[in-house]
């Protein structure tokens, strides 16, 4: 077994262990393999190990690696987990299956302009800036209701929330806040937890965890 395959298997074992430990329903947590900075052979190693869901944080990089990979592995799903500029919306709707980073009115309006019937089905999450960090994207928690209302008006269906907690803070408060907001707005999906804190995220009800380093090793 390759190390990537072993890492993936180990992560699924950890998820199962955490759910048992917390007496949770053994629900399926979607492991999003974050392949930013990874080569195509590394990605193919993960695919060979059975991994089918991947995440990229830069549209440009994803456009270089993924159109060909998706042609060759049509059942693979790709998530956008980094900032989306409005001038990249069209190509993003053609490439990504889940866009986790809806975060501002202008982006909602541009996304909603594209007729979903003319496109592949795409799932949307709203990114919440739970730490209210100025340099980070994401809607502020206090502006979330208004943004979700706009999405509804514009016909953009939102299925979940996503966050990236501030680096110096305990992630658990941010995970609790995000899970709460999702519940309050009746959104089924919660994307939270990275390599350093995914155990905590799973324990707090993450439906999607986004792991790069734990699968592919550290990015140089
Ligand atoms: C890079 C990245 C991850 C994965 O980070 P690791 O610590 O390598 O697991 C998750 N989410 C986002 C938004 C990222 O940019």
Give me the strand/helix succession. Answer: HEHEHEHEHEHEHEHEH
Structural class: alpha/beta
Got a strand count?
8
| Proportion of helical residues | 40-55%
Oligomer category: single chain
Q: With helices defined by DSSP (H or I, 4 residues minimum), what is the helix count? A: 9
Describe the biggest sheet?
8 strands, parallel
Read across the widest sheet, the strand sequence of neighbours is 7-6-5-4-3-2-1-8
Chemical compounds bound to the protein: pyridoxal-5'-phosphate
In terms of per-residue confidence, which ranges show pLDDT below 50 for 5 or more consecutive residues?
Answer: none
Strand residues, percent: 15-25%
N-C termini distance: 24 Å
Write down the Rg: 17 Å
> Which shape, going by the Cα principal axes?
globular
State mean pLDDT (0 to 100 scale): 95
Short structural summary:
The chain is 42% helix and 16% strand. The chain has 9 helices and 8 strands.
Give a structural overview:
The protein has 220 residues and is an alpha/beta fold. It has helices at residues 3-21, 40-48, 59-72, 89-95, 105-113, 144-154, 171-184, 198-203, 213-216; strands at residues 30-34, 53-56, 77-80, 98-102, 123-127, 158-162, 189-191, 208-211. Pyridoxal-5'-phosphate binds next to β8 and α9.
């Amino acid at each position: 077994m390759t190390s990537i395959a072993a890492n993936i298997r180990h992560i699924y074992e950890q998820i199962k262990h955490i759910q048992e430990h917390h007496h949770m329903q053994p629900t399926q947590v979607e492991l999003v393999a974050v392949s930013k900075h990874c080569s195509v052979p590394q990605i193919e190693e993960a695919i060979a190990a059975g991994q089918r869901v991947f995440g990229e944080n830069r549209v440009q990089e994803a456009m270089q690696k993924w159109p060909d990979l998706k042609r060759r592995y049509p059942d693979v799903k790709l998530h956008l987990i980094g900032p989306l500029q409005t001038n990249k919306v069209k190509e993003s709707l053609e490439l990504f299956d889940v866009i986790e980073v809806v975060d501002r009115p202008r982006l909602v309006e541009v996304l909603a302009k594209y007729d979903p019937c003319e496109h592949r089905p795409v799932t949307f999450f709203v990114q919440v800036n739970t730490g209210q960090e100025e340099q980070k994207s994401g809607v502020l928690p206090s502006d979330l209701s208004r943004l979700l209302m706009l999405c509804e008006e514009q016909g953009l269906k939102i299925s979940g929330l996503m966050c990236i907690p501030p680096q110096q803070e305990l992630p658990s408060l941010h995970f609790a806040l995000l899970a709460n907001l999702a519940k309050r707005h009746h959104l089924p999906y919660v994307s939270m937890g990275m390599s350093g804190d995914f155990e905590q995220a799973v324990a707090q009800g993450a439906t999607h965890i986004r792991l790069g380093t734990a699968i592919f090793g550290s990015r140089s």
